[in-house]
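Exam revision sheet. Question 4 asks you to relate a sequence to its structure. Input first:
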Amino acid sequence: MRLSGKLFLLFAFILGSMAARAQYILPENFNSVKAADTAKENSSEDEGEILIKVKPGASDGIFKNSDDVSYTLRVDNLYKVTQDGKLTCYVTTDMGDKVFENTLNVHMTKKSSDNFKFKIDCKQDYGFFKVSFIFHLSSYDDTVKRVFGVNASKINPPLHKPADFDIFWKRTRDSLAKIAPQYKVTEEHALDVNNKRVYLVEMHSWGDKVVRGWLTIPITKNKKPLPVKYRLPGYIVALEPSLDDDDFVEFNFNVRGGGNSKSAIDTHGEYNLYNIENRDEYVYRAVYMDCVRGLDFLYAHAGLGIDTSKIMVDGSSQGGGLAIALAAMDRRIKVATVQVPLYADFRTAYDITALNPKSQTPVGMIVNYVRTHPKFNKEKLFDVWDYYDPLNFAPDVKCPVLMAIGLLDEFCPPRCSLAMYNKLTNKRNEWWSSPEKTHEVDELYYTKQFLWFQDIFRLD
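Answer key, structure tokens:
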């Protein structure tokens, strides 16, 4: 079920959103630079700016039907001179295939405003599309980029789940179980603020490596066990103690190679490339097991005031993919919230990312590795990554999932996130779209997230 932001307009006056830019390639003729006119540049009449507000026909940028796709642009000419020129709407699929182009004439007197509307024929009944609004005016050249979706529930790529996928991960978990966790919990008194106790947590995980996290426990009068927010980290992100919630135990866990678990592995600065040519030794095999071991810790320490029947796993980017994999492997997770999940539908993400040879995203690093290692081709890569793709874990997730995406996200293409979401089966799953965000979501989503898992926990 897709979310509607209308239920939360009450909160909008305290929450802001920032416009974000996407970077994708336009045809060469749209990238031309206006020739400089020195005399004009020195004229005081040419001082000013153009303000552009882009409004999709669907507030979240996701249209139910291809016939409904439209955009309205409000343009304010703050220059002291009339602006004449062209405004072009150019649309491609997320794989770069052109589907629509239309150009309007622009004539705006000084200090005036106008509205321009485009009805878009995307020629397909579902998918995600890139739209560019290209301005060539007397004193102003610019391109505003957006992404929209159509009938996203129809995005349903085939699974490439290896025949021994379940056996591989069962064998992996069985190996983890043989490693004594040797938990160590140390209260960090210097960090105890806001009526909360903060603990440094250490444990032995896959390969007998020590990984760490931060446990924050509110001091309550009723001594009732509290539900848990189990947070998993983004790509090489260091999670620090959380001190912002009085109603939940918060466990911010750093998998090996990041934060206070950095010393557990040395990937020589190429984290997601570490042993990438070997399915059994690939870095994410150990990382996924770190996440399981962190969950083991929570269950082993209910005496600290942890309600182990109400554990929510949360993650953004890499953490979102980890959350889906963990929820699939372990029924002890009762709720999952994921934002802009990295690596979802990895095969498609690879193909989309490969369109930009200069991509510096985590998937872009893998694309470049394959490009520069001819003996390790794309097929051999997928032979490894099919064991780690969150898409292949998604059908086994039985708990409710809330997912949020940014439509301008190049780290995690929206189509890939929705492909993963559509493989989930719980009827209480929901998703949220932030149409002007890149690798993040708008603040209003977090209000929804809080209310959502409060409601889920209350219903269970």
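Marking note for examiners. The chain has ten helices and 17 strands.
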